[in-house]
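Reviewers of the previous submission asked for a worked example of the structure-prediction workflow described in the proposal, so we include one complete record here. The input consisted solely of the amino acid sequence. No template or homolog information was supplied to the procedure at any stage.
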Amino acid sequence: MTYTEAEALALFSKIDWNSWVFNPGANPQPDHLNFTTAGAVGFEQMADAYIELGGQSSPENYTNYLTTDDVQLQIIFLARLRARKADMTLAIINRVDGDFNVTTAKNPEHGQQWFPLSIYLKYDFAYAAAHHYVSYQGRMKYILPVYTALVQNGRRDLAYQWFIDNQNFYHPIALAKVRQIVLGSSSLSAKD
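From that input alone, the workflow returned the following C-alpha cells.
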C-alpha cells in the first residue's frame, strides 16, 4: 500500500513517540490496528469444532489444514487445541492425529504445541516421538514446554530419564534450564 505524503504524516502524528521510546512496557499501538486474519479465525474455529465433535467425526473443513501453504495457520490450530486442553479428550486427539499425523510432523513448531498437549492427555502414542523430539531439538523454545508438561503431569521420572539421555547434547544454558525444571524441588535432585 502506498500513502501520499499527507496520509503518511497523518498516520505518524497518531504515534505517541515519547511513550514508545521512553516508557517501559509494550509499545503503544493505535486502536485501529488489528492483526486478526480470516485464516487465523477459521483455523481456531476448526479447532473448536474438533472439540465440539468430541472425536466422533472431523469438521467439514478439516482438509484446510492439509492444503494450506501457511504453516502458521496450522500452528494457530494446534495452539487453540492446547489452549483448550481442559476440553480435550483422548478421542479428540486421536481424531486430530489420525487426520493430520501431527505426532510425526517434521516442523518443530508443531511439536512445541503438540507434545505438551499429548503429555497432558496421556496420549501414549506420542511419547516416543516426543522423546525423539527433545533428543534432536536443543532449542529451549521447543524442549522446555515438553519437559514442563512431563513434570506437571506426573511424569518427572520420564523427564529425568530424557534429561539424562540428552544432557551431553544440550547447550549449557539449555541444560541448566531443563535441570531446573526436572530436578527443581524433587527427590531426584539427590541423584544428580
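Residues 38-53 form the longest helix (16 residues). We consider this example representative of the routine output the project will generate in years two and three.
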